[in-house]
Amino acid sequence: MPGVVKKVQCQEGDSVAQGTLIVTLEAMKMQNPLFAPMTGRIKKIHVAENESIGEDEVILEFYEDDSSDAVAQSSSA
């Protein structure tokens, strides 16, 4: 969903477990936590704190433990 990146709780290269809080967005004055959908390693962060993002914008990319790539992005849901 469109909003503002309030906090990035990880850095490129970090290992994260499934369910780890990775980014907090603010949309419509509500805090929206984004959690790692799988265990892996942060590959690339595409946003910065206090940056406005649009719908379907890529927020970060990470490698799953089996080395396949995954992407976290904002959505309209």
UniProtKB/TrEMBL annotation:
The lineage of its organism: Eukaryota, Metazoa, Porifera, Demospongiae, Heteroscleromorpha. PROSITE patterns: BIOTIN, BIOTINYL_LIPOYL. CDD domains: biotinyl_domain. It comes from the Eukaryota. InterPro entries: Biotin_BS, Biotin_Carboxyl_Carrier/Decarb, Biotin_lipoyl, Single_hybrid_motif. Keywords: Biotin. The keyword Thylakoid does not apply. Residues 1-63 form the Lipoyl-binding domain. Gene3D superfamilies: 2.40.50.100. This is Propionyl-CoA carboxylase alpha chain, mitochondrial. It comes from Geodia barretti.
